[in-house]
Design brief:
The protein is α+β, with helices and mostly antiparallel strands. The protein has five helices and five strands; from the N terminus they run αααβββααββ.
Length: 193
């Protein structure tokens, strides 16, 4: 199997792993898929060791995949820790994005106060993933699929770029406990006129 095919395989395995973790936090699985996460991590490290002879595009895709894996891993570990400490209440049958945050002890926060105000994102393919993670962090339900989200972003990008006269990228922000997408200039002129 060539390098590019191995990356495609790992991307599919990461999507499967994300689904398994969502099922665990949703109450469908009794045990967290920790072993599967460790196996995928080892496979990513092994592929990274052989990436020196790969094309730069493939190395970039691998780097993005590693970043997504690490972001999800850190989020899963935090959610497991919060579940064990009783910081969040997980309702069986609810998706991870729809869980209800509750304070563990008097005088503690629900976890929302510690969120970054803005997560800087380019126009990469993981804008939807980051948006979902941040919505899950604040306990908001995800009511839109990836394709509909991307179509909506593309329409908004075209409208905003037309008004601003330059290219824009989107940030995920938390404002008053609500997740918002905000556009910012990238500094490049829009030549699509």
């Amino acid at each position: 199997m060539d390098f590019s095919s191995r990356i495609i395989s790992l991307e599919g395995d990461l999507r499967t792993l994300i689904t398994r973790w969502d099922r665990f936090f949703g109450g469908d699985l009794r045990m967290p898929p920790v072993r599967e996460k460790e196996i995928l991590g080892r496979r990513l490290r092994k592929l990274t060791e052989t990436s020196s002879s790969a094309h730069s595009g493939d190395r970039f895709r691998l780097s993005q995949l590693q970043h997504r894996f690490m972001s999800y891993s850190m989020n899963w570990e935090r959610l497991l820790r919060e579940r064990e400490e009783g910081v969040r209440r997980f309702v069986p049958g609810q998706k991870t994005g729809g869980r209800t945050p509750v304070a563990a002890r008097p005088g503690t926060t629900s976890g929302n106060d510690e969120l970054p105000m803005s997560v800087d994102l380019g126009d990469g393919e993981d804008l939807f993933d980051r948006w979902c993670v941040v919505k899950g962090e604040v306990g908001q339900e995800i009511k839109i699929g990836r394709q509909a989200f991307e179509n909506q972003i593309d329409r908004q990008r075209l409208e905003i770029e037309k008004k601003m006269g330059s290219r824009v990228a989107f940030d995920v922000s938390v404002v008053d406990g609500k997740v918002k997408l905000t556009a910012r200039r990238t500094g490049r002129k829009n030549h699509k006129e």
